[in-house]
From TrEMBL:
Residues 122-135 have a biased composition (Polar residues). It comes from Bactrocera dorsalis (Oriental fruit fly). The keyword NAD applies. Residues 223-240 have a biased composition (Gly residues). It holds the Pfam family AIF_C. This is Apoptosis-inducing factor 1, mitochondrial isoform X1. The lineage of its organism: Eukaryota, Metazoa, Ecdysozoa, Arthropoda, Hexapoda. Residues 638-763 form the Mitochondrial apoptosis-inducing factor C-terminal domain. Residues 307-631 form the FAD/NAD(P)-binding domain. Keywords: Apoptosis, FAD, Flavoprotein, Membrane, Mitochondrion, NAD, Oxidoreductase, Transit peptide, Transmembrane, Transmembrane helix. Residues 107-191, 212-243 are annotated as: Disordered. InterPro entries: AIF_C (IPR029324), FAD-oxidoreductase/Apoptosis (IPR050446), FAD/NAD-bd_sf (IPR036188), FAD/NAD-binding_dom (IPR023753), FAD/NAD-linked_Rdtase_dimer_sf (IPR016156). Belongs to the FAD-dependent oxidoreductase family.
Amino acid sequence: MSIYSLRGLNVRFCRQAYILAHVRAGVVPMPGRTKLRLSLCECSDQQLNSSRGYAINNTGATIDELNRLKPYLLAAITPLRSSHNNLYQMVKKRTLEARTKLQRNKFPNNQACEEEKKKKSTNVCNDQSGSTVCASPSPGSTTTRPSTTPYNSSSSSTSSIPPCKPQFEKIAKDPCPPKPEVQNKTTGGSKCGVKNAELLQAKDCNISKRKNVTSDKKPCDGEGAGGSGSKKGAPSGGSIMGDDEATRKTRMLLALLAALGLGGLLLWLLTRRKQKVADSTECGTTAAIASTVPATSAELPKHVPYLLIGGGTAGFSAFRAIKSNDPRAKVLMITNESRKPYMRPPLSKELWYSAEKGEVTKDYRFKQWTGAERSLFFEPEEFFVDPTKLMETVNGGIAVAQGFTVKKIDPAKHIVTLADGYEITYDECLIATGCAPKSLDVFAQATPGVKEKVMVYRSPDDFERLKRYADEKKSITIVGNGFTGSELACSLANYAKDKKVKIYQIFPESGNMSKVLPTYLSNWTTAKVESMGVCVMPETSIKNAQRDEAALKLVLNNGKSLLTDVVVVCVGCEPNTSIALTSGLEVDKSLGGFVVNAELEARRNLFVAGDASCFYDPLLGRRRVEHHDHSVVSGRLAGENMVGKKKAYNHQSMFWSDLGPEVGYEGIGLVDASLRTVGVFALPTSNPEPRTDNLTETAVMEGGGSGSTVTVNPETPDVKCDPKDADEYGRGVIFYMKDDKIVGILLWNLFNRIGLARTIINQNKKYDDLNEVAKLFEIHA
Ligand SMILES: Cc1cc2nc3c(=O)[nH]c(=O)nc-3n(C[C@H](O)[C@H](O)[C@H](O)COP(=O)(O)OP(=O)(O)OC[C@H]3O[C@@H](n4cnc5c(N)ncnc54)[C@H](O)[C@@H]3O)c2cc1C
């Protein structure tokens, strides 16, 4: 299957069924193929405005064939589209009017916003007036906004349409313009004289179209059926019809139109319903699981040697370790997701760059930093064993029971109980349930109408949903300044740079990544994120959220309000430990997560790994870590211990993050901005060349807690290293200090040095001169 771009083809109301009908009717010839299954996808407003459509090509047809087909498809769908469009516009307008009325009654204060809207208020980011600002849908409120009135732009004026060519004009004004060449020809004078233009107006102008063979008058011109010509009044045999026949034909035409209208209405209702289903999520938990694999739990084995609870990174890493130590191991993984195991980091980064190039594949392929391509999924579908056959396979393998939730574990009897009561016994079991995104009270307690517009971000479904919003909507607001929120803000801003959607980022802290980065670097990062096109609103929180027409009205702590189409809540994650209570397992009171010993065991033969584990770090004390590397390594160690290796977990895991294409960092140990920090950066020379290696001076930054002190590198005393002056934190290393020891290291745009950082932390000693330690990192190299 591939995605095939049908540039210039408006496919909004022209679904597969119509195309198929036309293929079958022979309107669309399909040389050499009897069956065409080309699913035309609904395109976004953005795509419509830029005359772009796309289709999923699962026909097996080659691109050449599709290219040959394209003009026919266009010709076939165009007349259908016009009638559907009219109906759609009408219904949409009425729905909006009704909804607006309803909302006005519900939220009277929203009128203030509407007035602001009318005044074309300014960008929230720049507005310091303290007045209410409706940023999102205000026409002209931001530079990226379209000039049309939002939310009902598609029902824009038809009043100037001259008589007898309403349909034609409507199409010309349609947000879904036809192929450029059609437009050119239609504006060129002979509106019905061109084949495609004829199709456009065939419905309204068919009489005059027939007449234009002999008429001097332009078809569709004023009187329509008039015209002069030798055949005027001729009863049959040609272009001019008798009155009766004309009436009959008109009636037939009207009947046809009515049928098409009804079809369109049905289609619109279906589309609306589909959209509603996609949108209606319980505070953002996208995509309820529709079905399970296998169909019922009764088809699952009653006993397995290895049972993994959770279908994420830690679980799959444990499987790999088990399999490499016990080659015929039979492993059952139970996940409440509907997918096979996959990794999450690219969801907020690389996948958006694939999406920007229009390259999102079914298996979510993305380009790694090495340049190599890979899928989000750890293994392809064929790799996995059918869960119903797991116990019969000679060579073992991993089977994934998808869509099943574990409710309880009996660690003494080795029994796992599913939500429907089905029990599976195990020899060795791993809990790798990860964590679930948190929401905010303001949304958790909101009305269903508000919740519909609020989502969290953790899965491919969330990616798909957010991408759809980015393609179709006008504003997205990300709440939270942590890893996911900041990464997503940058990725979305990049993805949306040629689109009309505006990205906002709101958080109560003073800067991006403030829990990790020292204040000066957090402030610098915030400016960097803004420069990527994100409207960052620090020191801002949401007091109230109301549904306003089709959007959300967020009332902010500064008295302003922001209208937005969707809110993505990225305020951290809570370990999935609900089974602890039913299973008699201990959860750490302050850190959360299942408490495990050094071997990652919660109870005998019951292990915990990944985000959900709260483990003891001999160097840094009890910890819980939500990072990919920790999931991989702790999952691997748990897997090894499940086959009896009895290893202790003392790996110092690392993490990484990217903020757009220019900023990337890696961290290890306790990377916590509340600790005292010392940062050593390479600064550009006073006469910088546009070369990344032209970095000759070094600045040392000290920070910690709320304030930060700045010292000058003794080697280069002339370097002014006040955060305000240091306009560039190109590359550097930041040490996080506790009891004068380095407990955490952050490598800022410095790569391939994490091993060295790990060694330094593991040395667990005091250093007299951190400059000397910094030199080891060769920040100028
Ligand atoms: C968008 C995003 C970007 C990220 N980027 C980075 C990054 O750049 N660098 C980095 O180091 N880390 C990153 N992370 C964090 C990293 O992905 C996680 O730490 C890692 O996925 C944790 O793996 P896990 O296996 O412990 O949990 P998960 O991957 O969350 O897997 C847990 C699984 O258990 C299932 N489950 C839960 N409860 C039950 C139950 N009762 N019954 C059955 N199944 C259950 C869940 O549905 C899920 O499938 C990112 C995370 C996200 C969401």
